[in-house]
């Protein structure tokens, strides 16, 4: 499922402990979960390896495998809120056509974010190398220009004498 269709993390999976994400059953979700047509909401474990990753539809009562965030201790609720802020802030910087981010599980976000940052760092290093090379070329051209100017003045001086 595409991450932008996700409403929020509403709890944790009792099977694996990962975040459980809630989706509104709409047209874009029907493409991935055709049976969601019969439900108001869809919940899915964010862990792609979990038995509950495919998810379930529901109206008002959550499936048994979901532990609501309100049932969790306060420190865990704070940590989940921090993780949500992390996901939201990093997601703001990811282009909408960046499929490695939007079509992967949020469980993979740290790896994808690290790889993006490594790529940006390599691009920046390459830019510095290009700038250094061009700066050296400019310096060499300036020195060459100074030598030509000196030769020109020397030639003019020799002609005058």
Provide structural commentary:
With 161 residues, this protein is of the alpha+beta class. It has one domain (3-116). It is built from four helices and five strands; from the N terminus they run ββαβββααα. It has helices spanning 27-32, 74-93, 99-102, 109-160; strands at 6-13, 19-24, 41-45, 56-58, 66-68. It has a five-stranded antiparallel β-sheet with strand order 4-3-2-1-5, with no helix packed on it. The mean pLDDT is 86.
List the helices and strands and how they pair.
Layout: E1 6-13, E2 19-24, H1 27-32, E3 41-45, E4 56-58, E5 66-68, H2 74-93, H3 99-102, H4 109-160
Antiparallel strand pairs: 1-2, 1-5, 2-3, 3-4
Q: In short, what is this structure?
A:
The chain is of the alpha+beta class and 161 residues long.
Chain-averaged pLDDT: 86
How many angstroms does the end-to-end distance come to?
Answer: 86 Å
Tell me the fraction of residues in β-strands, as a range: 15-25%
Please work out how many helical segments DSSP would assign: 4
In oligomeric terms, what are we looking at?
A: single chain
How big is the Rg?
Answer: 29 Å
Backbone shape: rod-shaped
* Tally of structural domains: 1
Helix-strand string: EEHEEEHHH
Unreliable sequence segments = none
Strand order of the largest sheet: 4-3-2-1-5
Number of strands: 5
């Amino acid at each position: 499922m595409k991450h932008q269709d996700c409403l929020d993390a509403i709890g944790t999976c009792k099977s694996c402990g990962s975040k459980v994400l809630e989706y509104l059953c709409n047209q874009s979700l029907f493409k991935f979960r055709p049976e969601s047509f019969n439900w108001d909401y869809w919940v899915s474990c964010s862990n792609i390896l979990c038995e509950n990753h495919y998810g379930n539809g529901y109206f008002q009562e959550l499936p048994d495998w979901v532990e609501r965030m309100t049932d969790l201790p306060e420190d865990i609720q704070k940590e989940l809120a921090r993780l949500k802020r992390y996901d939201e802030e990093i997601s703001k910087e990811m282009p909408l056509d960046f499929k490695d981010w939007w079509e992967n599980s949020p469980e993979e976000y740290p790896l994808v974010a690290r790889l993006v940052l490594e790529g940006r760092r390599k691009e920046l290093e390459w830019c510095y190398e290009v700038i250094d090379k061009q700066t050296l070329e400019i310096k060499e051209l300036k020195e060459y220009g100074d030598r030509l100017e000196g030769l020109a003045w020397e030639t003019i001086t020799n002609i005058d004498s």
